[in-house]
Design a protein that fits this description.
Blueprint (H helix, E strand, L loop, with lengths): L4 E5 L11 H19 L3 E8 L4 H9 L4 H18 L6 E4 L3 H16 L3 E11 L4 E3 L4 E4 L2 E4 L7 E10 L5 H10 L4 E2 L1 H12 L5 E2 L1 E2 L7 E2 L2 E6 L1 H6 L1 H4 L9 H6 L4 E5 L3 H15 L7 E4 L2 E3 L2 E2 L10 H8 L1 H11 L6 E2 L2 H31 L2 E3 L6 H14 L2 H6 L3 H22 L9 H22 L4 H10 L21 E3 L13
Parallel strand pairs: 1-2, 1-14, 2-3, 9-15, 14-15, 16-18
Antiparallel strand pairs: 4-5, 4-8, 6-7, 8-10, 11-13, 12-13, 16-17, 19-20
Helix pairs in contact: 2-3, 5-6, 11-12, 12-13, 13-16, 13-17, 14-16, 16-17, 17-18
Bound molecules: 5'-O-[(L-methionyl)-sulphamoyl]adenosine.
5'-O-[(L-methionyl)-sulphamoyl]adenosine binds next to helix 1, helix 7 and strand 14.
Length: 512
């Protein structure tokens, strides 16, 4: 049987400050895909880490009065703890200061030199330390007397220094061909168009080394130069698979990457530079780059400099990790930008979690405990109404795999929420509490259908709320290996005779 491998990555964070909600959002999206694929029988490798070189980090270390490595050791740990707090199911956490990474960057560099794609010249132009990005003259505007990038709003500085260049201009046509052949290389499609237009407008050669600071990986054979931090950082995706050892199991199983989840601010690096470097080096590019939108607070990108940060740690401690994960995945439209606020978070917890999914589980489990001694037995055929809800649910579930494969999380969530609404309505209409005396078999069958519905919803929501849904699935006595998506083709999950256990309240209603 062919192994179904899935290598998924979330950007390695700059440890230049504390983790914030934008980081959380980016990583949780990736985690949801990783968990879905794992539940769906794939052999998943999920990676994140820290991006520790470059001027931005050197400056942050200087500010903290620490040498860069000590500074990075400290903050990388903060990000690793953050990944655990977010409940990310990562298989590896890579640091760009590790030896495995340095070897990999050196090898990629040497390949690019060998292929004739790197040459030495002089760079003259604009650079943003905050974005670690070069900008063209036509991308610069003046704001409050300062030169800033019109793209990101970050301040830029004029740089003139000797630099190695990557012949990006030579890759324009080849990249356009690549996008043409791989229609879904960049999703959502609006971002694909954005990238294609940018490439069509002409690509200039890219400066890939710096000489004015020291914190980074040195260019092989020219110690005065530090490799451009983005060429360094992007290579982490290969380093984590033990590249340049092309025969090792990780590389052979997982390259090319199945999916890089990134924010739209770093699309150019992943969708233009990265495939160009790889094609030049004779390495297959990743299969998909998904660029999600920004999290906004009061219509502005959430960022430290704007002081509009919702602190994910506080939110998790106050409202719970599953609650935050659910809110971010449901309320923020993934292709475009989304506004988040505590008020909306509270509303979402109450209406979707406490009143809908939580209430559905609670009412059915406590009814079965009180009236059936925790045992439900299906007898005879389901009624017309029972069959109807099962078939309506099948209609909702049949394209869920496709939605996930297109990173359409919003529609995925909508379908699952609809199933939950539908099930609550079915129970209200069927009124099993009235049947205890007159038709106990019918009551059992209604409860059986309800449990089956709860099982499906819980498995579908499991990638989003791993902790709460596991409680429900444990209480349904569904084994770990049966928490998969084979039911998406319409098959059943729970046995005809099912014993359930009780569990504590899932989601508390929040005072508004
Ligand atoms: N170090 C680079 C990534 C290198 S990957 C080879 C980087 N780091 S970052 O810490 O600045 O950002 C990490 C992720 O968080 C990126 O996907 C970025 O888009 C995302 N976000 C940071 N702020 C964000 C919002 N306000 N909203 C949503 N995501 C944003 O970029």
């Amino acid at each position: 049987m062919k192994h179904k491998n899935f290598f998924i990555t979330t950007p390695i964070y700059y440890p230049s400050g504390q983790p914030h909600m934008g980081h959380a959002y980016s990583s949780i999206i990736a985690d949801v895909f990783a968990r879905f694929k794992r539940n769906d029988g794939f052999n998943v490798h999920f990676l994140t880490g820290t991006d520790e070189h470059g001027l931005k980090i050197q400056k942050a270390a200087e500010k903290s009065k620490l040498d860069p490595l000590t500074y990075c050791n400290n903050i990388s740990k903060v990000f690793k703890d953050f990944a655990i707090k977010l409940d990310l199911s990562i298989d590896d956490f890579i640091r760009t200061t590790e030896v495995r990474h340095k070897n990999s960057v050196n090898d990629l560099w040497n390949r690019l030199v060998k292929s004739g794609d790197i040459y030495l010249s002089k760079y003259k132009g604009w650079y943003s330390v905050s974005d670690e990005a070069y900008y063209n003259e036509d991308e610069i505007v003046e704001k409050d007397g300062k030169k800033v990038s019109s793209f990101s709003g970050s301040q830029v500085e004029w740089v003139e220094e000797e630099s190695y260049f990557f012949k990006l201009s030579a890759w324009e046509k080849k990249l356009l061909n690549f996008y043409e052949k791989n229609q879904k290389f960049i999703l959502p499609l609006s971002r694909r168009t954005e990238v294609i237009n940018f490439v069509k407008s002409g690509l200039k050669d890219l400066s890939v080394s710096r000489t004015s600071f020291t914190w980074g990986i040195k260019v092989p054979n020219n110690k005065n130069h530090i490799i451009y931090v983005w060429l360094d950082a992007l290579t982490n995706y290969l380093s984590a698979l033990n590249y340049p050892d092309l025969n090792n199991k990780l590389y052979k199983s997982f390259w090319p990457a199945s999916l890089h989840v990134i924010g739209k601010d770093i699309l150019r690096f992943h969708a233009i530079y990265w495939p160009a470097f790889l094609l030049a080096a004779g390495i297959e590019p990743p299969k998909r780059v998904f660029g999600h939108g920004w999290i906004l607070s009061g219509d502005e990108k959430m960022s430290k400099s704007k002081g509009n940060i919702l602190n994910p740690m506080e939110i998790i401690d106050t409202y719970g990790i599953d609650e935050m994960r659910y809110y971010l995945m449901k309320e923020v439209s993934h292709g475009s930008d989304g506004n988040i606020s505590i008020k909306n978070l509270k509303n979402c917890i109450n209406s979707d979690l406490a009143n809908n999914y939580g209430n559905l589980c609670q009412r059915i489990f406590s009814f079965i405990k009180t009236n059936c001694n925790n045992l439900v037995i299906k007898k005879g055929d389901y009624s017309k109404n029972d069959k109807e809800i099962i078939s309506e649910t099948n209609n909702f579930t049949k394209n869920l795999r496709e939605l996930i494969d297109n990173q359409d999380l919003n529609n995925y969530m909508k379908s699952v929420i609809n199933i939950s609404f539908l099930t609550n309505k079915y129970i209200n209409d069927e009124e099993p509490w009235k049947l205890k005396k007159e038709n106990i078999n019918k009551m059992n069958n209604i409860l059986h259908v309800s449990l089956e519905q709860i099982a499906k919803i819980s498995i579908l929501l499991n990638p989003i709320m791993p902790k709460s849904t596991s409680k429900v699935l444990d209480a349904l006595n569904i084994s770990k290996k049966n928490r998969n998506y084979s039911f998406l083709d319409g098959s059943k999950i729970i046995p005809d005779k099912i014993n359930i256990s009780s569990f504590n309240i899932l989601f508390k209603k929040i005072e508004l």
